[in-house]
């Protein structure tokens, strides 16, 4: 009996219609689907898969993961998930792990994949639509108006990242920009880029929110975890 293969499958940012044909075919061919989810609630990635694939004959496992800042718990959850995947691969079963956006960009999948590779198993990646590309479409924005200028992908988890955005040429994509809207707006104002920043929360989902200005009176107090901001040149 041969060993199974782990597939990291990008399923896009939230709209089930953005899942690629290759992603669908890969998941259909795998006997096991392991889907990450927050400790509370269901897996968004899995719900996107279910909108495209009949999983009746698959083994489906939702694996809870700790959030940012809970390092010990997060490491333990990753180890548990990797052990689960390895146990199925040892049985010769292929495993699909759907991940939001693309598996190469800020993906939980990469932490699991590293552990699985370390055990001698093969890992493959199926690309998906990155969130910032879908956000650009929602904003009808050109991320590369000047082909000579770069596009920067920056995690908006701390104010230092936002300050650095002011010093970068070209377009700056701020990933994971959710949280207190007023705090984000203040940090962007201090960095001198507030007027050039637009944001989309829950892109591609029924509750998608497009904000052309983060200091507008109708901006909600809190922005969802799946929020991406774009600082245009």
Automatic annotation (TrEMBL):
Q: Where is the Tetrapyrrole methylase domain?
A: 5-212
Q: In which pathway does it act?
A: Cofactor biosynthesis; adenosylcobalamin biosynthesis
**Biological process GO annotation list?**
cobalamin biosynthetic process; methylation
Q: Which GO terms describe its molecular function?
A: precorrin-2 C20-methyltransferase activity
Pfam families referenced in this protein's UniProt entry, alphabetically: TP_methylase
Keywords on record: Cobalamin biosynthesis, Methyltransferase, S-adenosyl-L-methionine, Transferase
The cross-references to CDD domains, in alphabetical order and at most eight, read: Precorrin_2_C20_MT
Concerning Gene3D superfamilies, the annotation shows: Cobalt-precorrin-4 Transmethylase, Domain 1 (3.40.1010.10), Methyltransferase, Cobalt-precorrin-4 Transmethylase, Domain 2 (3.30.950.10)
UniProt similarity note:
Belongs to the precorrin methyltransferase family.
The identity of this protein, by name, is Precorrin-2 C20-methyltransferase
């Amino acid at each position: 009996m041969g060993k199974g293969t782990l597939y990291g499958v990008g399923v896009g940012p939230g709209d089930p219609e953005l899942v690629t044909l290759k992603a669908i075919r890969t998941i259909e061919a795998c006997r096991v689907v392991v889907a990450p989810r927050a400790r509370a609630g269901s897996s968004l990635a899995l719900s996107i898969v279910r909108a495209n694939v009949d999983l009746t004959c698959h083994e489906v496992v939702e694996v809870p993961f700790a959030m940012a800042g809970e390092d010990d718990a997060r490491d333990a959850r990753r180890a548990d998930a990797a052990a689960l995947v390895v146990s199925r691969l040892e049985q010769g079963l292929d495993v699909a792990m759907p991940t939001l956006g693309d598996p190469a960009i800020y993906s939980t999948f990469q932490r699991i994949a590293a552990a699985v590779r370390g055990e001698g198993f093969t890992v493959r990646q199926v690309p998906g639509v990155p969130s910032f590309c879908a956000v650009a479409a929602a904003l009808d924005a050109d991320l590369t108006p000047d082909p000579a200028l770069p596009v920067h992908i920056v995690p908006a988890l701390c104010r230092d990242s936002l300050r650095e955005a002011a010093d970068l040429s070209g377009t700056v994509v701020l990933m994971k920009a959710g949280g207190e809207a007023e705090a984000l707006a203040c940090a962007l104002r201090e960095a001198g880029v507030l007027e050039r920043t637009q944001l989309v929360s829950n892109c591609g989902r029924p509750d998608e929110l497009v904000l052309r200005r983060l200091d507008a009176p109708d901006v909600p107090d809190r922005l969802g975890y799946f929020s991406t901001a774009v600082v245009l040149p």
